[in-house]
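Example 3.2
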Amino acid sequence: MMRDNPQGADLLKEARHVLTDVVMPQLSPETKYQLLMAVRAIKLAERQFLADTESEARLAGLLAGYQETEASETDPTRSLSNQIRNGNWDASPQVFDFLQELTIFKLKETRP
């Protein structure tokens, strides 16, 4: 899709700049803390806008492939978690690689 400029991530970056550089110096310490929480949410939204959608779609497809078809659980993440707890994937390098790649993807987004 062709987007107009500025894009969502650009707008969030500018909003974050205004909040931290213009608004925050004028606030009390209690209000600054609340503003910093909002700025953190904006940073996360920026990273989500810039996320690699192809990798996300591929990981979602892989996750769906690990879902048990006869299970009553409809959430693929919960289904895989239950299977791991039951030992179904203990010796699976494919599941290990998938979980490692998923973790790296999520860390890129959250940057703890």
